[in-house]
Design brief:
The chain is of the alpha+beta class. Helix content is 32%, strand content 18%. It has one domain. It contains four helices and four strands, in the order H-E-E-H-E-E-H-H. Helix 3 crosses helix 4.
């Protein structure tokens, strides 16, 4: 089968792209949020979640069109949000806190004890 040429330069596609599925309520339903191309990397999605750009995120997927893979990264992002909130002492919106609690692989809001080497 003959492939069509890409309408985007390949170097713009050769990266991981993150998209957020958001719940807009009973009347509007759920949709993958439209976003600018430069705001689809992991750090931009984390920043946008923390700043309230997404009111009720449900799922986050990542894909790389050149490498030919996609996966659900919801848990990874929830873990990253929990870690950043703890490190930077950030207050999360109630909806984002619910997202983290529902999807994180580690307990949210719980300070983990770090072992001290050589301490008696």
């Amino acid at each position: 089968m003959r492939q069509s040429p890409s309408v985007l330069p390949l170097d713009r596609l050769d990266r991981d792209i993150y998209l957020v599925l958001e719940d807009f309520g009973a009347r509007a339903g759920c949709a993958w949020r439209e976003t600018d191309e430069q705001d689809t990397d992991r750090e931009a999605v984390l920043r946008d979640l923390l700043s309230g750009q997404y009111a009720y995120p449900l799922r986050i997927v990542a894909f790389n069109a050149i490498e030919g893979w996609s996966r659900d990264v919801t848990e990874d992002i929830a873990d990253a949000l929990a870690g950043r909130a703890a490190r930077e002492r950030l207050d999360l919106s109630p909806a984002l806190e619910d997202f983290v609690q529902a999807n994180s692989s580690r307990p949210f809001g719980l300070q983990l004890v770090l072992p001290l080497r050589g301490a008696a």
